[in-house]
Design brief:
This protein is mainly alpha-helical. It has 24 helices and five strands. This is DUF885 domain-containing protein.
Length: 566
Amino acid sequence: MPATPSNQHTRSQLPRQVADAYVDAYIALDPVNGTFLGDPASHSRLPDLSPAGLEAVAELARETLARLDEAERAPGADSDVERRCARLLRERLTAELAVHDAEEPLRAVSNLGSPVHNVREVFTVTPTDTDEDWAAVAARLRAVPAAFAGYRETLDLGLRRKLHGAPRPTATFVGQLTEWAGQGRGWFEEFAADGPEALRGELTEAARAADAATAELRDWMRDVYAPAIEGSPEVVGRERYARWSRYYNGTDLDLDEAYAYGWSEFHRLLGEMRAEAEKILPGAATPWVALAHLDEHGRHIEGVDEVRQWLQGVMDEAIEALDGTHFELAERVRKVESCIAPPGGAAAPYYTPPSVDFSRPGRTWLPTMGATRFPVYDLLSTWYHEGVPGHHLQLAQWAHVAEDLSRYQATLGGVSANAEGWALYAERLMDELGFLTDAETRIGYLDAQMMRAARVIVDIGMHLELEIPADSPFHPGERWTPDLAQEFFGAHSSRPADFVESELTRYLSIPGQAIGYKLGERAWLLGRANARAAHGDAFDAKAWHMAALSQGSLGLDDLVEELSRL
């Protein structure tokens, strides 16, 4: 029986016990996260995405905060490990409740990371090794129509309360649902086709019902939801943005200072990119002209399976080079798999962490967007970010030390800016260590860094409708709009038009998340600089990296302070 506040409450509980009881109770309500954590009881179920289901999760958070109040008074609660866990749990649940109480989930329409995206993605990590696994898949497929109906109920309540998503993400989402529903076999039936013959009929029937529910949701989004919100604002404004920024970054940012920092990084990186561009194509008008030259004449990987194997090699080679020198990796942390993302999602690569018991390894995912030819400059630094030493080393290390911390700190308590900041720090670390020595791979790294600086500028700028500075090379003195943001992003990135379109839609529907890469990196760099200054010549980068990665999740409020102590 999963732990709940009522059946696990004792006066002797400490914050880490409260946190782990919360994990058990939460995954009973949200089996999607249960599957990501490797809980077998979750694999056949889906969450209740209706308003009642959302309220049940919020009530669990409220009860857990009340229990945390008592746990923090218990003997032993002032130790470092208990203190860090308690601060994270309180900050995360408070931020989540602020989002819930503002009824933000009633607006949850996006091209990435919506409840519907999560339902689809969880099938890609659900075990499928045995007939018993596939029987659980069949049960989960049968749960899709009810889950989608609950999600529609939530959005419908948002319409009635005039709390809804933006038109552009809605249009993109309708297109994704259309692709998933298919014209013959839909995505779910295609997925179920790999099941065993003994369950063929059951799987096909359940998958077809899931595909039909996808088409039904698409029709409602297209015919009811989209017309109802036509002409609505695309941006969220300062108050909503600040709420989401706290949720994704674990701190109350000075948004104007962060916007100025984004511009300072833009100018710094532009200078470095021009120097590398001159080596590639002397006299190039902009760095992106040189990058376009690399698209045609630079090193490429031909073929989808070939690029998957190449990316696997990038991660394997990084592990061999870094383990024992800059990191000390457990054997199970050394395993990571390169995968091709299923079609119909957003354009950005992503990572899925291992289950807590490592029965499912960490995996990187490349969306090909129909391409079969892949430039190396665009991939190398990205896979240092998504794989090694980026997301994989951090999130797999969290899982490895979960019993020493708490499962909450290693899983549900993750703060986006911490993880994305580490992954961007990891890209910079590989540059510092000399893994990006030629102009081609280094300008690719700088282009990726520039994309993260541009995210800070356009995400804050367009949602707060700020003025573009006078020293900007782009529309100085004008106020940001989504159209200007897309034009700016496209002009200062090597990414193709469909990627730029996908990114801007993402920023419009997930405000405050995209800024955490650069601001999180700044926190990691400051924490390292403070620790190095404190230790002087005795500073041990390998020991610092492993201690930092073994702390579990921290919001930016606490990250610099804790890193500086190591």
